[in-house]
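Ticket #4471: structure output looks truncated?

Reporter: J.K.
Steps to reproduce: submitted the chain below (419 residues) through the standard prediction queue, then opened the result file.
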Amino acid sequence: MKTIDIVTSNNVTIQYELSSIAKRFVGLLLDMVIWWTYLGIVIYVSTLIFVGVTSLAPEQVTWNTWGASSNNSYWIYLLVAILSLILVTIIYIPVFFYRFLINIIFVISPIILIVRLLKKKEHILRFKEKFCIFSSYRKKGKLIWFHGASVGEIQSILPIIEILEKKNDIKQILITSNTLSSSKVISKLKLKKTIHQFFPIDTNFLTKRFLNHWRPNTAIFIDTEIWPNTVYNINKRGIPLIIVNGRISKKSFNRWKMFPNFAKEIFCKFDFCISCNEISKKYFQKLGLMKVKYFGNLKFAQSELNKFSLDERLKKFISKKKVWVASSTHSGEEKVCAMTHQILKKKYKDLLTIIIPRHVDRIPKIEKEINNMDLKTHIHNSNRIVKKQTEVYLVNTYGETKSFFNTCKNVFLGGSIVP
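Returned output as attached by the reporter:
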């Protein structure tokens, strides 16, 4: 059997059988045939409805008939019929419609990834992991898989990772996430058994490929990271599926309730859930996940793996200031914080504002914006001595938020000003 070798960024050579590639390609083609057949059926049935409403003979239905003149509204009947059938599909066959949409996203995903690469939001080599071109391999033995969206979710499970690393029967721990920032956090930790991969696009064939490669013994989703195709394929393989630190807001709950059958079909496939609060526990149960327990929020747990201490000189500098921290700020909120600083410094001398943006790659832009407001800034981890006249301290690292929280009593949490 002919094979091709692909060398990953970690110098791991992976062999692909040409027949396997052909099978996946044929599978994708079959998927697309199904979707186009669905669209054909929608248009055909819509035409029948159109004929019934307008009392036209089928042979009279042409493009010219649908929009023959501005005085008739034949084309409106057709449009309403198509939209009605699509709406029925969304409500009664949501899984089918979800797979249709996710395949469209997959087709345009190269364009999306190119844009994200240009914005430096994707790893220049490892982005291919999202297409199941893996940069690591599975070891023999028991593998536990954790998946979380970004930095906060990954950091919340570090106390669990710390314990599992010491278990002799667990040979490998796989962590997947969607963001570049979360991969940087994991790379800084000294972990022997734990590896990171980017989560693949949630198409049916990619999730199957992912599960075939890693063959997890247990799958654990963090917070509310729920991907339908992945959930379906995990369940088909009989892999235990768990949610830890599960959280559902009222807004998310109402969205799920719009598709009750779909929600029940997804959530009933989870074997167990540990919610982060009592409200989420009730929401999970109403959505069809019955085995739910509440033990507290993991984000308040402290791990030995990510304990950072601030430099003594920095601690001394901060102790002489009146300090407040703006943490996990979104684009636009930093300017509001800087304006707040300008108002407060009229009343409080030696005021220091510490800004920790949600995405540290925006630091250069934030620094320029604040400097234009005639405020003196300093960037953390710049190997420069903090000047006495520094007014705004910008943190450009991940994992040190708690260390800054320990130095001050006043914290503003980002995401509460801009949507």
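Triage note (M.O.): checked the attachment and the full token line is present. DSSP finds 16 helices and 14 strands in the chain.
Status: closed, working as intended.
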